[in-house]
Amino acid sequence: MASNINGFSKLSKGDKINWIAKTYFSNPQDVIELIEQYWNSDEELQKLHDEFIENTITNFYLPFGVAPNFLINEKWYTIPMVIEESSVVAAASKAAKFWSERGGFKTTILGTEKIGQVHFIYKGDKSKLTTFIYDTQKTFLDDTLSITQNMQKRGGGIKNIVLRDKTADIPNYYQLHVTFETIDSMGANFINSCLEQIATTLKEKAINYKAFSQEEKEINVVMSILSNYVPNCVVRAEVSCPVEDLESSDIKNPQLFAEKFVQAVRIAEVEPFRAVTHNKGVMNGVDAVVLATGNDFRAIEAGVHAFASRNGQYSSLSHAEIKDGIFRFWIDLPLALGTVGGLTSLHPMVKIALQMLQRPSATELMEVVAVAGLAQNFAAVKSLTTTGIQQGHMKMHLMNILNQFKATDEERIKVVAHFEKNVVSHSAVVELLESLRK
After folding, report:
1. Cβ atoms < 10 Å from Cβ of 408
2. Closest CA to 233 of 284, 182, 291
3. Are the C-beta atoms of residues 272 and 284 closer than 8 Å to each other?
4. Whose CA is closest to 382, among 256, 297, 216?
5. Where in the sequence numbering do the catalytic residues fall?
6. Which of 3, 8, 109, 277 is 20 to 30 A off residue 92, Cα-Cα?
């Protein structure tokens, strides 16, 4: 029977596993053996994984796949992808091959600025506060120098500190809006450390600021934290070619295909219900590379979806047009990524992924990730506007169904052969397996 437990974090790993197995399972020994099967046999490597988070009991594996044949800015890439969803890697690879024969992908870094904010309450004269912040600018920078000096040597650091009046939203609420350049680091810890020091300086200097009344001296800092919304840390990825060059084995009428494709993207621009699924397809590609390279996919997801809503309505991240006989498809994505720090120097598979990508800088990784998102989106919209999404997806999902029902090698051969000419569905696969087993 389930129960609460005191001091769980202080238990040994073995004791944690035993408690979970005995508390929640009728077959505790089987559960313990399964959990232990997912441990790494290398004790040092397992210890490394155990220390990534708290209360670790085992490892949870996801497939690490690769999508080859990406031509990005005239340079060839094989892109690592960590994802569990069928057909994502295959779709990205197919899109990569398609566009590699039509000039490849082009990318442009539109900005690399990251954001942090000190949120505070000030009950007083705004003009005095404005003057105080102006007078204290140099002190903010001087007091954070011990944190920023190494980043400054690489060309980064604090770029700007601006007072923002938010009293129309919340009484007496102001913020210091701070912009950063963090070079090849994602920069979360760096930014948060700087913000906390700026908040300390803000409070300390206010106490001794002669122009403030006693009440005005008592600035109440609510919190100091980076923002995962980075609308000025953006990369553009695009593909283009003459419409007639779109012709391929499954595109017999390139003009009709291009027009239908543009219309499908336009629908995602104006219809939020479609836009969410459209953008989910983009993130299939984006998240897979972000995970493989040890970056924070939750932060990327949050920032990207906020960006998709920046004009007041949730909309498509990608866009398409036909102009002067040229088909063009592009995407702008806000991506705060790092290639140093965090898991990038710890997780062995992350090291392999970055090596596979030829040791990219943060901006180069932004370009690769955006291209993966665009390729995945192209493949999805292409399927939707031609054969339909399920034909390819369900054929890739076929192996999962066969594994679920523990199909033998002989059964697999017969089932795969059958569904080369028939529509795959879960019920159809089960029915065929049952007939083979009679």
Report:
1. 12
2. 182
3. no
4. 256
5. 85, 280, 296, 393
6. 109
Instruction: Give the Cα separation of 57 and 420 in Å (integer).
Output: 42
Rounded Cα distance between 323 and 341, Å, is: 43
Residue matched to tokens 């065929």: 432
> Which amino acid, one-letter code, is at 232?
N
> For residue 36, is pLDDT > 80?
yes
Q: Do residues 419 and 399 make contact, with C-beta atoms less than 8 angstroms apart? A: no
393 pLDDT higher than 60? no
Is 293 in contact with 80 (CB distance < 8 Å)? yes
Between CA 181 and CA 18 the distance in angstroms is: 47
Task: Confirm if 337 and 279 have CB atoms less than 8 A apart.
Answer: no
Q: What span, in angstroms and rounded, lies between the C-alpha atoms of 354 and 367?
A: 14
Report the alpha-carbon distance of residue 81 to residue 88 in Å, rounded.
Answer: 9
Q: Which residues of 260-297 are buried (b: 16+ CB within 10 A; e: fewer)?
A: bbbebbeebbeeeebbeebbebbbbbbbbbbbbbbbbb
The 10s digit of each residue's pLDDT in 420-433 is 777 788 888 888 88
Structure tokens at 263: 């219309």
Residue in the block written with tokens 């909309």: 315
Q: Specify the length of the chain in residues.
A: 438
What's the predicted TM-score (pTM) here?
A: 0.89
The band of 411, judged by pLDDT with boundaries at 50, 70 and 90, is confident
Helix (H, G, I), strand (E, B) or coil at 51: coil
Which DSSP symbol is given to 355?
H
